[in-house]
Design brief:
Strand order of the largest sheet: 6-5-4-3-2-1-14
CATH topology: Metallo-beta-lactamase, Chain A
Largest sheet: 7 strands, mixed
Order of helices and strands: EEEHEHHEHEEEEEHEHEHEE
Number of domains: 1
CATH architecture: 4-Layer Sandwich
Number of helices: 7
Shape: globular
Oligomer: single chain
Radius of gyration: 17 Å
CATH superfamily: Ribonuclease Z/Hydroxyacylglutathione hydrolase-like
Number of strands: 14
Strand content: 25-35%
CATH class: Alpha Beta
Distance between the termini: 5 Å
Helix content: 10-25%
């Protein structure tokens, strides 16, 4: 399994327009962050987690040639609003793509992008998508390859959203709390990817200490922090993390 970080930034990305802080003004490419999204390749199967508002730029930068399925964590704009641009892939591949998400996320997606789920969209160049509500472990199949995916419910403030476990990797973003039932589903991981918005506490996102606390409870072999604001400077953060915890950055690739 190959894992590519398409974006590691929070909702505004980094740098933020008009901001003169040392991170936004940094020349270090690891401090330049598109909105958070992840791409997974397993044999002949290509799975995208979230259609970030920077989707088009991410596809061009990573030179992605194929998408077979999409997992949506939740409906907030930074994780969803690039969905229209997926038409480039449905048109080129001449096929409908399956989209998987939490049942109560579907009405939000349909309100904004309902046109993308109509029959016949392939003939007129619109995005061609098929929606699936998922609650338990399901299997994505394509070209004789398959992946088992387990939705992991977490608390994004008062909104319950999904992270996803795929094999021995899990991706959790926009996470203020993880219930014990979800902690149990995250045991035995080789890689945990989890947000760490900033050092200061935030009402709906995990700060650094909270993220490290979740990592201690889950006990992955390795953990990678993501979904950073401009209050996180990459080298400063990396220098002060436990030996099995790392700061992710845009374009980072992992092989599992």
């Amino acid at each position: 399994m190959k894992i590519t970080f398409l974006g590691t930034g929070t909702s505004q990305g980094v740098p933020i327009p008009l901001c003169s802080c040392h991170v936004c003004q940094s020349d270090n490419p690891k401090n330049k962050r598109l909105r958070s999204s992840l791409f997974i390749e397993h044999n002949n199967l290509h799975v995208l987690i979230d259609t970030s508002v920077d989707f088009r730029q991410q596809m061009l930068r990573a030179r992605i040639q194929q998408i077979d399925s999409v997992l949506i964590t939740h409906h907030h704009y930074d994780h969803l609003y690039g969905l229209d641009d997926i038409r480039a892939f449905t048109n080129a591949q001449n096929k409908i793509l399956d989209v998987y998400t939490k049942p109560d996320c579907i009405p939000e997606i349909m309100t904004r992008f309902g046109y993308a789920f109509h029959n016949g969209n392939l003939t007129i160049g619109l995005p061609a998508l098929r929606m699936h509500a998922v609650k338990h472990t399901f299997t994505i199949n394509h070209n004789s390859s398959s992946l088992n995916v387990t939705p992991i419910e977490v608390a994004h403030g008062s909104l319950n959203i999904y992270g996803y476990r795929i094999g021995n990797m899990a991706y959790i973003t926009d996470c203020k709390g993880i219930p014990q039932s979800s902690i149990a589903l995250l045991q035995g991981l080789d890689i945990l990817i989890i947000e760490s918005l900033r050092k200061r506490p935030h009402p709906t996102h995990a700060c650094l200490d909270e993220s490290l606390g979740f990592i201690d409870k889950i006990h992955p072999k390795k953990a990678f922090l993501t979904h950073f604001s401009h209050e996180i400077e990459h080298e400063e953060l990396e220098a002060n993390l436990p030996e099995h915890v790392f700061a992710a950055y845009d374009t980072l690739e992992l092989i599992l």
